[in-house]
Specification:
This protein is mainly beta. Helix content is about 15%, strand content about 40%. The protein has helices at about 50-70, 100-105, 240-255, 285-290, 310-320; strands at about 5-10, 30-35, 70-80, 80-90, 95-100, 110-115, 115-125, 130-135, 165-170, 175-190, 190-200, 215, 220-225, 235-240, 265-270, 275-280, 300, 305, 325-330, 335-340, 355. The relative contact order is 0.15.
């Protein structure tokens, strides 16, 4: 049986929330209970690793575990279908919690469980593009009074083999720390493309640990678990930079505020300049149409982000917000042109964690 990272206790035979993908780690795995005593000797991936290096790694794991585990909580959402459990973490001292939309989008009663006590939470914002949800809780009433949190940063990628720490909360257990590593990046599954490229990692997680923060050995946020299962294999991490963008929107506008350009893109058979990204159509009444973009234009950059293939338009567009003035570099008939447009709010809402190409951006 496939045990899920998001766990559901069914009522009247309701089915568990679905997550695909799987998890394994074959190089170096360590499981540490945040509530347990640190190991007396360092764990070594192989006999070739020096005792000094192993001691430093073990010390980093213990330090991050002690410092960050208090910012990680169990989340329970219950409704007429049953109960869904997952993990979340504080983003700031004001009680903002980041978690998976899959855990809480059914509404119902949302509860934060920390150090054996329960605290009511409210749903503040959902982003169907990334699968992220923000919750709010009265930070002053929680065990650490808002002192412990994991702020996002602008990181959007990490080198392969970078060590990672995951902190998750399975049902009725204290936070656990898992050690793994980055194995690469992925931009899509089949015909469905992520809003931004996701990190691939090998790590060991348990049921109920979807939404776990993933950290580096210094305790900086690398991203959040958005996809995977407890079977052997890889799982996907939404990078911290995407969470930072959503937090910036939330602080500025009180909601998530995606920007929309309104150009459908495709891959050109023959590149022009450094890009294969060609505008296939322009949405009527869109910022793209207003700015003068045309079918056949080749996109070289959006908002200072270099574009070489169509899927990069998705990532560049994700970081825009409604009302933002954006510069674009294009080639039209072999001539370099600079276009400026004012992003608007998208006319509709994407459903799920990805959008199929060619997208309207």
């Amino acid at each position: 049986m496939n045990r899920r990272l998001v766990s559901r206790i069914p009522v009247l035979g309701c089915v568990a929330a679905s997550f695909c993908g799987a998890l394994v780690f074959t190089f170096f795995v360590a499981r540490l209970s945040a509530a347990s005593e640190p190991p007396s000797s360092p764990v070594s991936a192989s006999g070739g690793i020096s005792s000094n290096l192993s001691s430093k790694v073990a010390a980093s794991i213990r330090s991050v575990s002690k410092e960050k585990s208090g910012a990680v909580v169990r989340i329970r959402c219950s409704d007429e279908r049953g109960e869904v459990n997952g993990t979340g973490f504080y983003l700031d001292p004001n009680g903002t919690i980041c978690t998976l939309m899959e855990i809480v989008r059914g509404g119902g009663n949302i509860t934060i469980i920390q150090e054996g006590k329960e605290y009511p939470a409210t749903l503040s914002a959902l982003d169907p593009r990334s699968g992220v949800a923000f919750l709010k809780v009265d930070a002053a009433s929680t065990p650490h009074g808002g002192r412990l949190f994991i702020p996002p940063r602008s990181l959007t990628n990490a080198p392969a083999l970078s060590p990672l720490l995951g902190i998750g909360v399975s049902r009725d257990r204290p936070p656990f720390v898992s050690l793994g590593m980055v194995t690469g990046t992925v931009s899509h599954e089949g015909e469905y493309y992520y809003c931004v490229p996701h990190l691939l990692a090998e790590i060991t997680l348990r049921e109920g640990e979807g939404g776990s923060p993933i950290l580096d050995l210094s305790g900086g946020l690398v991203g959040m678990v958005v996809n995977g299962s407890t079977k052997p294999g890889e799982f996907r991490i939404l990078p911290s930079g995407a969470i930072e963008k959503l937090q910036r929107d939330f602080l500025r506008f009180g909601k998530f505020s995606p920007g929309w350009i309104g150009a459908v893109v495709e891959e050109a058979a023959v590149p022009q300049g450094t890009s294969r990204t060609r505008i296939a159509a322009v949405e009527p009444g869109s910022p793209a149409e207003t700015s003068g973009l045309r079918e056949g234009d080749m996109i070289l950059s959006i908002g200072g982000r270099r574009i070489t293939n169509p899927e990069e338009v998705l990532a560049a567009s994700f970081y825009l917000y409604a009302g933002e003035r954006v510069g674009m570099s294009i080639l039209r008939g072999g001539v370099l042109r600079q276009i400026h447009l004012l992003c608007s709010a998208p006319p509709g809402v994407l459903v799920g964690l990805g959008a199929a190409l060619p997208p309207a951006q």
